[in-house]
Amino acid sequence: MRILITNDDGVFSQGIELLAAALGDLGQVTVVAPDREQSASGHSLTLHRPLRMRRLRDHWYSVDGTPTDCVTLAVMGLLKEGKPDLVVSGINFGLNLGDDVTYSGTVSATFEGSLLGIPSVAFSQEVAEGFSFADAATFAHNFVSALLEEPLPKDLLLNVNIPAGPLRGVKFTRLGHRVYQQSLVEKKDPRGRKYYWIAGNPVWTEEEGTDHAAVSSGYASVTPLHLDLTDYRGLESHSSLGGRVERRLKEADGS
Ligand code: MN
């Protein structure tokens, strides 16, 4: 079992150190992670400059790029002779719930793993009273060893969030929704020019069965994800739009 570990908090973060140690007895662990923090980098891929991979010690490498770059360089470069059987991302400093997964570098690394045909799991830890990366690493160890009891489906893509404080159990969930209350702070710099700061605390809709509901009641949430973003209901409900556009194009052509 070859396990590739990455994150978006950077290769020197505590979360990845403890995660790699915790998974060490489950397989051959290779760490390839950004050389600095890349939180909220989303599924960003670096195409307009060369990327460098640096060996830090045995099985530990840093990349001057995003989490997605790290997975790409690891799978297509460093480990091309023996591709990983599992990609694990984290343990992130902070939750990655609901609508926020698309901003998340932690989760996006697992998107990339999945696109490359490798089962992938992301772990994120709530930062609040009682939070412990050591406990989260123990959780991750137990989670991955349970996972490995059965053959891994190729399309396995799991987003796992771990609450701070005592753990009540594990719940399978769907993504929750954030009420859009992200505030934008507008200020002036010393030269009188405006600058902006995206800030604000997320407010979540209260819905049973969501990742947010599980974590806020003390359960670890496990959300299976899929990269097919097609809205299959939309195929039906917007189906007349194509014809209406075509009619306009024809009219414009005729006039
Ligand atoms: Mn992060």
Provide a descriptive summary of the structure in words.
- The chain is of the alpha/beta class.
- The chain has a single domain (2-177, 207-253), classed as Survival protein SurE-like phosphatase/nucleotidase (Stationary-phase Survival Protein Sure Homolog, Chain: A, 3-Layer(aba) Sandwich), CATH 3.40.1210.10.
- Helices cover 30% and strands 26% of the residues.
- It has seven helices and 13 strands.
- The protein has helices spanning 14-23, 67-78, 105-115, 133-147, 211-216, 232-237, 239-254; strands spanning 2-6, 28-34, 53-57, 60-63, 86-93, 120-125, 157-162, 169-172, 178-179, 183-188, 194-199, 203-204, 219-224.
- The strands form three sheets. Strands 3-4-2-1-5-6-7-13-8 form a nine-stranded mixed sheet, sandwiched between helices.
- Helix 1 packs parallel to helix 4 (133-147).
- It starts with a strand and ends with a helix.
- The model has no long low-confidence stretch (mean pLDDT 95).
- Bound molecules: manganese (II) ion.
